[in-house]
Amino acid sequence: MNLYVKKGYEAFQRTLENRVSFREIIFVLAMLACLSRTLSPSLALVLGIMVAQFIGHPYLHLNHRATHFLLQVSVVGLGFGMNVHRAAEAGKDGILFTIASILGTLVLGYLLGKLFKLERTTSFLISIGTAICGGSAIAAVSPVIKAKEGHISVALGTVFILNSLALFIFPFIGHLLDLSQNQFGLWSAIAIHDTSSVVGAASRFGGDALEIATTVKLTRALWIIPVALGSAVIFKTGKGKIKVPYFIGLFVLAMVLNTYLPGMESFGHHIVDLSKSGLTLTLFLIGSGLSGSVLKSVGYRPLLQGVVLWVVISTTALWAIVMLGG
Fold first, then answer.
1. CB neighbours of 34 closer than 8 A, spacing ≥ 6?
2. Are 83 and 259 in contact (CB under 8 A)?
3. pLDDT value, residue 93
4. Which residues are within 8 A (CB) of 143 and not within 5 positions of it... i.e. 6 or more apart?
5. Which backbone phi and psi does 274 adopt, to 5 degrees?
6. Residues 202, 188 contacting (CB under 8 angstroms)
7. Cβ(196)–Cβ(283) under 8 Å?
8. Is the per-residue pLDDT at 205 higher than 50?
9. Which of 88, 95, 78, 7 is nearest to 274 (CA)?
10. 200-212: average pLDDT
C-alpha cells in the first residue's frame, strides 16, 4: 500500500513540475494573501518588489493589463462607500489646487528637461505622469504624441519607482505633521502620481482622507483629455487617439447609487471591502513588475527629473494646503 502511495505522490509531483513551476505557486499564494487582506497595501507592494527581484514575475506579459483592469474595477467599487454631497464638496475644494499644480508641474518639468538635457518626449511623459495620474496619463498621452516604446517604459519606470516610495513616505509625514484627514486627502491626491498609490496611502491615514483623496484624484484624471489635446498641438502630431478614462463615470454612478438608492448602504460596505482587496492586489502586481531590468532602463537623469519635480510639487502643495487651511 505504501508503495502505491509513494508512486502516486511521485506522479503528482511530476505533474506539478511539468505544469506549474515553483515561482508560479509562490506568486499565486502571494496574490491570495493580498486578496484576503492579510497584507497591508504597503506590505503588498514590498512583497511584489521582492518577488520581482528574487524569483521574477511568471506572467509579466499580462501584468500591465491586469493592473489597469483591477485598478479601474476597484476604484469604481470604492464609489459604493462614498456620498455624492461630500464628494462634490471635496472636488470643489480641490479644483484650484488641481489647476495650479498641473500647470506648475508641466512648466517646471519642461525647464528640468532642458536643464538635465533629457530627450523631449521622455521628459514630457514624466511631467504628464507627475501632473495628472501617473501611468494612466502616460498611457493616454503616449499615442497622441507618437511616443516610442523606449520613451514610455522609462517614464513609467520613473513614476512607478516614486509611487512605491510615496506609499511609505506620505502617511509618515502626514502623521508627523499632524495633518487633518482633509489636508492629507487633498495633499496625497495632488502629490502622488498613480490612483492606486493615492488610495493606498490615504486608506492608511483614515476613511475621510480616502474619500477626499479618491474624489480629487479622479477629478484630476479628467484633465487627461484637454492636456492630451494640447500635447498634440505642442508636438504637432495632429489628432491622435486619446484613451478617455470612462471608469470615472462608473465611479460617479456608484456614488449616486450609494447616496440615493434605498438599502444600498446595507451591503455597499461589502463591495468596498472587495475593492480594497483589489487595490492591495494591484499594488502587489505593480511591485512585481519592477524588475531589475526595468529599474536599470530608467537611467539616472530621467529619475532625477522625476524626483526633483515630485519633491518640488509635494512640498509646494503641502505648504499651500497647510497655510490656506485646506
1. 44, 47, 277, 280, 281, 283, 284
2. yes
3. 62
4. 240, 241, 242, 243
5. -65, -40
6. yes
7. yes
8. yes
9. 78
10. 89
